[in-house]
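Hi C.,

You asked whether I'd gotten around to modeling the 244-residue construct. I have! Everything is below, sequence then structure, no commentary in between.
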Amino acid sequence: MARTVNAAAYARRRDEFLDAAQRLIESKGYEQMSIQDVLDEVGTSRGAFYHYFGSKQELLRAVVERFGKAVAALLEPIVEDPGLSATGKLRGVLAELMARKDQRREVLVSTLRVWYSDGNARVRQGVRMGIIDQLTHLLRPILGQGMDEGVFVIPDPEAIIRVLATLIQDLNDDLADQFFALEDRDVDMTVVERTVAGYMWAVERILGVPHGSAVLADMKMSRAWFDSIRTEKDMAWPTIAGDG
């Protein structure tokens, strides 16, 4: 008789491998991580690993896929809320993305150096594309609703959706580059503010909405991120003008 697989137990065990891989990626980098590292982290055999994943690359795909699903699960309640207008949903999605990062600030700051190392280039690209795919999926009904409500003026929604998703992720990457630049120099917050304003202007012009409709980043939150990174690197940085 064929052995019956307990689906819940299988999923839990698979998640243990994914959790271990994610910890290792954040602590040492994907390229430096070996299958043996994962086995040691989980405390199991190579045979057990291959029961769930065919290779290290397949493990990576699963980590990236799970990350994308987590983003979608976080944002779907906002997108599906019948009481929100299209602009309300857009603001809600963007605010939730910012709040999620801020809630994990301490963890993210502590892993910033490893995450942006060459050893994680493949992971970063995979995560980037996964997030853009999820944002594209989530923005589609918002844009459709906005057009029905007459607030979004978009000539070709399908062509625009991925452009918007890419712009949102590009801003995230751009700000991350600024954060990482603290390794070598101080960062003028007015430059960061102008960068954010430029992305906001682009998104609002694409949608044809009034200024202030698409808040892509909370500058108070961004300043807190910069302060956290300065503290993490234990360096004496000058006070940003106007921080009062």
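If it helps when you're writing up: The CA atoms of residues 51 and 234 lie 44 Å apart.

Thanks,
B.
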